[in-house]
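thought: fold this chain, then report.
action: predict
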Amino acid sequence: MSGGVDSSTVAAMLKSEGHNLVGLTLQLWNQRRLAGRPGMPETSEGRCCSLDDVYDARRVAEHLGIPHYVVNQQDRFEHDVVQPFVQEYLSGRTPVPCTLCNNHLKFAQLLDTARQIGAERIATGHYARNEYDPARDRWILKRPADASKDQTYFLFGLTQAQLSRSLFPLGGYRKPDVRAIAQQQGLALANKPDSQEICFIPGGDYKQFLDAYLADRGEAMPDTSGELVTTSGEVVGHHEGIHNFTVGQRKGLGMATGSPLYVIGINGADRKVVVGSSADLTSKTLRANRLNWISIPRLDGTLRLQVKIRHRHEAAWATLEMSAEDEVAVTFDQPQRAVTPGQAAVFYDGDEVAGGGWIL
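observation:
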């Protein structure tokens, strides 16, 4: 129970169906930790997992008459999500913290806690569907009915064991219907806005967060400054740090040219930022590792699937084949814009999530 309308509605739905419920809320990040540091706002409004959300979850549990517990996982969250986020940016990659959080905490930790209290399954407010396919002897993860709320991109790392013990009751609903159910169930937060920001980055400015977080730990920002170079290797400028850039970025390059320039690539080893034209930004290939297969046990030979390279990216047709023991090569039918190392590549077979991995 995150304290939002979705997980609260799930609790109300399952309660009305007669299930024996226990509400669990993860306390992941001290929202006051960086408040007041340069560039950091004083409040956590608009972010998930805030203290207000914990209080909202508790009030919903009281309304439903179910026990509610807060599970403090701040240390693990910092180790498994925040620190990798920081290191990825400092090495020139662009991370996806919400996927790491789902993999390491929202499912792995909640399932561990569920076992400890004797619960059979966990239910969440994610917009996704899962079902068991006896023909394949596998649990299948599918897109939800509401395509605008599809969260399967962030769930590609779920294992068969995790999927087998998870429920996604909102998979067949659209968001307006969920709010209507919340009102019918008498939930005071039926009209609560959705959280819009990464929970541990107040204001959504990751650059300011990096400075504040390192200062909070008593660490200096490492020197990641270097050269701005063209795709041919010509030095055209200097930058103050590779953590200030991401592939596809146009603004903030610190230089004026006759035609628009974009960040084409970031070389963390020599701290070079490669810039080029809009045409240079497209690519027909990518490689991904740390793979997790869902609808199939492994990839044999080649396979035609649709691939998403960002949450809001429209899945594009591609051919996949293994290029190493734990690495897949993806060749798109049409060039894709801003393939970004550190992001997830998620593979779809129609509505099914075939699997996914992390872009190299």
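thought: worth noting. Residues 281-359 form a domain with the Elongation Factor Tu (Ef-tu); domain 3 fold (CATH 2.40.30.10).
final: tokens above.
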